[in-house]
Amino acid sequence: MTTTSQVNPNVSDATARAAAQAAAKNQPVTFGKALNTALADALTAEKSVVIFGEDVGTLGGVFRITDGLTARFGNERCFDTPLAESGIVGMAVGMAMNGMRPVIEMQFDAFAYPAFEQINSHVAKMRNRTQGRLPLPMVIRIPYAGGVGGVEHHCDSSEAYYSHTPGLKVFTPSTVADAYLMLREAIDSEDPVIFFEPKKLYWSKEQVDLEALAAEYEARKAAKTEGVARIARAGKDATLITYGPSVSVAMEAAKLAAEEGISLEVVDIRTIVPFDDETVSASVRKTGRAIVVAEAQGFASVASEIVARVQERCFHSLAAPVLRVTGFDIPFPAPTLEKYNLPSAERILDTLDQLQWEA
Amino acid sequence: MTTTSQVNPNVSDATARAAAQAAAKNQPVTFGKALNTALADALTAEKSVVIFGEDVGTLGGVFRITDGLTARFGNERCFDTPLAESGIVGMAVGMAMNGMRPVIEMQFDAFAYPAFEQINSHVAKMRNRTQGRLPLPMVIRIPYAGGVGGVEHHCDSSEAYYSHTPGLKVFTPSTVADAYLMLREAIDSEDPVIFFEPKKLYWSKEQVDLEALAAEYEARKAAKTEGVARIARAGKDATLITYGPSVSVAMEAAKLAAEEGISLEVVDIRTIVPFDDETVSASVRKTGRAIVVAEAQGFASVASEIVARVQERCFHSLAAPVLRVTGFDIPFPAPTLEKYNLPSAERILDTLDQLQWEA
Amino acid sequence: MSTDATADRISEVSQKFGISPEDYMLPARHMINLLDPDGTLRPQDQQGTEPGHEYPLPSPARLMEAYSALVTGRRVNDQNSALVRQGRMAVYPSSHGQEACQVAAALCLEDGDWLFPTYRDTVAVLTKGVAPMEVMTSFRGEWHCGYDPKAYNCAPMATPLTTQLLHAVGVAHAAKLRGENTVVVAMCGDGATSEGDFHEALNFAAVFNLPVIFFVQNNKYAISVPFSQQSAAPSLAHKAVGYGMAGERVDGNDLMALMSVMTRAVRLAREGNGPLLIEAHTYRMQAHTNADDDKRYREDAEVIEWKAKDPVTRMQAYLDDAGLLTEEAAAKITEAAEAVAKDLRDGMNQDANTDPRELFEHVFSTKTPQLAEQQALLVDELDREEA
Amino acid sequence: MSTDATADRISEVSQKFGISPEDYMLPARHMINLLDPDGTLRPQDQQGTEPGHEYPLPSPARLMEAYSALVTGRRVNDQNSALVRQGRMAVYPSSHGQEACQVAAALCLEDGDWLFPTYRDTVAVLTKGVAPMEVMTSFRGEWHCGYDPKAYNCAPMATPLTTQLLHAVGVAHAAKLRGENTVVVAMCGDGATSEGDFHEALNFAAVFNLPVIFFVQNNKYAISVPFSQQSAAPSLAHKAVGYGMAGERVDGNDLMALMSVMTRAVRLAREGNGPLLIEAHTYRMQAHTNADDDKRYREDAEVIEWKAKDPVTRMQAYLDDAGLLTEEAAAKITEAAEAVAKDLRDGMNQDANTDPRELFEHVFSTKTPQLAEQQALLVDELDREEA
Ligand SMILES: Cc1ncc(C[n+]2csc(CCOP(=O)(O)OP(=O)(O)O)c2C)c(N)n1
Ligand SMILES: Cc1ncc(C[n+]2csc(CCOP(=O)(O)OP(=O)(O)O)c2C)c(N)n1
Ligand SMILES: [Mg+2]
Ligand SMILES: [Mg+2]
């Protein structure tokens, strides 16, 4: 059930430095711990930050991402609510209206759906409908996607719903350092952020010195992640554009392709909204071929959007259509069958074969 | 506030015949009346059909689409519910589980959001999670989109949310004949259908003989609309791919383009799920250029999907990238400003200019 | 934050009233009503009070203040409806007949307190102090709520039903965490009580023991749907006990009763006794909005019956009889109301602010590259149009 | 379908009991409890009954039937937990300690009646007659619910909390429209009552006067969150009055009381008196699921305290004392339970049905071209793999 994400050969800037420092100190940390530390550091840095949701207090969340926060910061800074997602989001809206920075947790992806009206009609629109007078700085954390053998309703990739909704920012980290940095950025953002955490990465480990990263972030020296895609691996023959849980899959595909002499560039887009057209387009213009890899069902998805944008912007650089490797357009399958649905390195390589190399 | 939709020069099959018959009889009918008649005919044809929602009984719905049905069929066939959308959808799920065919109304697009969990986690998945044993034949009617000067929360185009959700069919008619036929088909479908009704078309009129159409439908002689796109106008220089409220805008653009000597083909896709790749691809392969026109905000939208599919399938026939004319990625604007957001014939023609005619 | 604490709190307050916790939470057996429809003060034993549910008469000064707001409220409702008929305003959901509720909802609050209104609560928002033209901004078809919610401690009027009750809970919770003594009045209609968010808001408020007054105007209709098809409960106020809070029903056309009930509710809430649910029985005298046709679903006779219970004439009669409404005072009150009406007429003659470039300005704190691109496209179109 | 009719209905039934409508709707002042934890029958005046809330003892035959199901239920819970520990099942939310509730929920129903269970209600589903391995299908990681809901009149176990209560309302409504006399028991937990759908379901059932019993197992926890942080109400049963229905709370570890309360509820519902809300006080003896660690949020002492109230030993003691549980009868009951446990062990040794091609078969009635294309892609992959 635990996946160790790839250590990236050419991570950029802060991430790279942080990774290097940590490697020196030899402290592997999990993705979950990075999130937990980001929350603790945010609670320390800013007294208007409050954390709440189902089971986030005493228990520390079903994934333990809020572990220890109630004990350390008290029941007023991190607390359990009654079991009602619309209630949680709606209350967060009010708290943000009144000077707080709520960071709330939806227990699983599909259990954010009861809050859809609050998110869509209020979280996304309050700033706009008050002409900027009521900004809503808040973060909605959503563990998402599969790869952990979850039962029905526990493995949805729901990022398209929120990415399609104007007024919401959508972040999804794929490395331990990004987990820390992006969550800090999300909490400090003046805009509401839907923060998607790939469940299968919670237990993945990397050599990252979180203390150094924190110091860097607080000194405003960490490189911005919002709207800045990450070249997870440099390459020249084709680009894999991906995010969140699929980054590790793309990295694996790139490794396998390299063995066959094909050099793949992997772009981790990090934030779906705002989108880094520049980095993505530059990569595709360079390689001339692209595959978008994402776990969500493909129809009318974020992957569709990326394909559409890339061909709009890079049409004359393209040697082949931009293809997609995504989940099928079916309800997310049960544990015994999920592997057939999830994008795999093999499926990416099969798709690569279709990029008209002979043409 | 009333828009008269275009009478299409080359509508296909049943639609054409029906239009012709009606023209002979000279009876203009509104889009709203066609829907109302479809509901009445379905109530008559099949005793398991029941209609309910907010204000659909005595009042006949805020748009009067259910006008007269309670009086004619009784309060057990068409009735008001308490004011709760999740309740309406959830109750419909149970009724469909127990032998009924509920046809329910969401009063406005954004007011379907409270039902998002019921729609996503149950309506879409019940057949699947019971291995086909509990199909849910039900129709969720949603008036959608703008062009009517509606205040906030009353003009969302929310089709992407449902189109992205596996297990839902998504229909949206753009002509009076289709309003009738597609609603009948939706009600008779064994699958749940989200039925999007472009508000601005409710009062649009066409020459259609509904009685003849009904007879044809019931004799199973009407051409299928599900999964069958409609060539709303034939052309050869570029294809406009569109649906619902944007069809009339595309038709207007085609007319204007024709005056400039450019021949545009307009494809009305009718059902977003299932999607008619064949018709769409054939048109684009023929013309070599395509613009997707839709009113919803563009990011991660149905328009994105269509662009992605078209370039995947027609890449080597394309003389230019597939472009989009959509709503902006902003909350739907208030009445005084909506015209700046809505796709217009002018904006389509501007986009047409970018299709690299000189290249 | 726990039921144990709540149980203690409830039993404490009920002890104060010398009644059982259940009797404290359940509404009085009869609706609280101080004035007869004709303006005469009811005998004490017919006021609906019973132990723990006693409501003293407000002071004359307070009544005069409320009456003045009532007259202005009525004038505003009718002025706005006229402006709609004249085509100078897009839509207006009038609260004609419900003005006493609206006035009490706002007047019971103190300066730092918050109000959460719906689309029908224009008069409450006005009474809270928002400038008339600011209140009307969204109804004229502009894209924003028109006023600064933080300047007035008044949320934007909410359209998605009952969603705002949760925001009210959040505002109260934030204040409580900071140790501020803020009371919040959260308004909704009878129909809206059927939505899930109503339930979640009341429960959150009770569990976190927050000073929120949930104020339901039961005007008997949700658009066309009569209350009898909305709920089978003995009263909406009876819902309170299911959350562990106190409930009360009050004659919503009796300004005196409303002022008394709401003032006590605010005091109880401010003293830390938790949220309360107040149901005001009133009537929507006009159609749902100008776009609605109420002839399709109700009899004139019913409307006429309620006309006899009008809150304005009732209060006026009482004040007249009590000798409080001198000619001078009455003139001043009318004058104030007319001034507001004139403001509205004048304001509506001015063009709405409709710079399309602003469409992109407040989606995020700073424009995303995508929005900048889209704005550029629109600006280019506008420039070409102007050229 | 209107409150007027409902009010009539409520006052009729309350008259039948010689009490006020409010007293009919509010739960009895004390929880209904017939057997002491040690299995002795409580004196009548301590059973929690009061006028209109009297509960007769079930017949010996009925008690024996229920006890047998109870023993099987306990065996199934413990067998399944063992299978999880052995790695032969993915996940199991055990109802150990709550089996009396589960048994009563199913046994009170007649053949054509429907049951709407949650993920924790395996034992209720079994008691409703579904074959053991069919019940366990989804917990082994298969993609469907395993049984034919229509064959058993038993909905798939629901995970998204309280969503299923609305489906229950719909099933009852459909039956009513067809003139069928179907009663529905809809189950949920204490935590789930906080969700909006709970509210909407109860209101719809009351407004449409449907024969639905909402049966809440208040096992004191929603994963880690104790009931005190879930609700501040005097009891969950008190919520009933806010919908215009009758509520009752019952000792959820007392099978005798449960059988009596649920049987009466079903009868009242079937006679057209509308929905009822029953809250059973019980305790989740084990962690939320095997993935949970309950040591993080509760004391052992609390668990031990509840161990003394175990429903199985309690009922056994009573039946023993009453001379109903002969050695022979006890042996038969154990045997039946063991047979089910064996079924489960054997079944779990068989491979789950996991043909990936089937992933596309039941999304729609017929595959869309898009799904056919995607299925072909997968089939091609599988073929190449096999080759
Ligand atoms: C979530 C939601 N669903 C539906 C609507 C459409 N709608 C607007 S007002 C209204 C009736 C509300 O009735 P009530 O709560 O009694 O308030 P009143 O209008 O009587 O003041 C409806 C159905 C809405 N605004 N929001
Ligand atoms: C809508 C929704 N939100 C969250 C969850 C996650 N979840 C599963 S069980 C549970 C606790 C439920 O507690 P309760 O209703 O008391 O039932 P119990 O588990 O005690 O039987 C939670 C939060 C869910 N399944 N559905
Ligand atoms: Mg109302
Ligand atoms: Mg529980």
Please give the structural blueprint.
The complex is a heterotetramer, with two copies of chain A (359 residues) and two copies of chain C (387 residues).
Chain A: H1 13-25, E1 28-30, H2 31-45, E2 49-53, H3 69-73, E3 78-80, H4 85-97, E4 101-105, H5 116-123, H6 126-129, E5 139-144, H7 159-163, E6 169-171, H8 176-188, E7 193-198, E8 205-207, H9 210-218, E9 230-233, E10 238-242, H10 246-259, E11 264-268, E12 271-273, H11 277-287, E13 290-297, H12 302-314, E14 323-327, H13 338-341, H14 345-353
Parallel strand pairs in A: 2-3, 2-4, 4-5, 5-7, 6-7, 10-11, 10-13, 13-14
Antiparallel strand pairs in A: 1-8, 6-12, 9-11
Helix pairs in contact in A: 1-9, 2-8, 4-5, 8-9, 10-14, 11-12
Chain C: H1 3-17, H2 21-25, H3 60-85, H4 99-107, E1 114-116, H5 122-127, H6 132-136, H7 149-152, H8 163-177, E2 184-189, H9 196-207, E3 212-218, E4 221-222, E5 225-226, E6 246-251, H10 255-273, E7 276-281, H11 300-307, H12 311-321, H13 327-349, H14 369-386
Parallel strand pairs in C: 1-2, 2-3, 3-7, 6-7
Antiparallel strand pairs in C: 4-5
Helix pairs in contact in C: 3-4, 3-12, 3-13, 4-10, 8-9
The structure holds thiamine diphosphate (TPP) (2 copies) and magnesium ion (MG) (2 copies).
One magnesium ion is lined by residues 189-191, 219, 221-222, 284 of chain C.
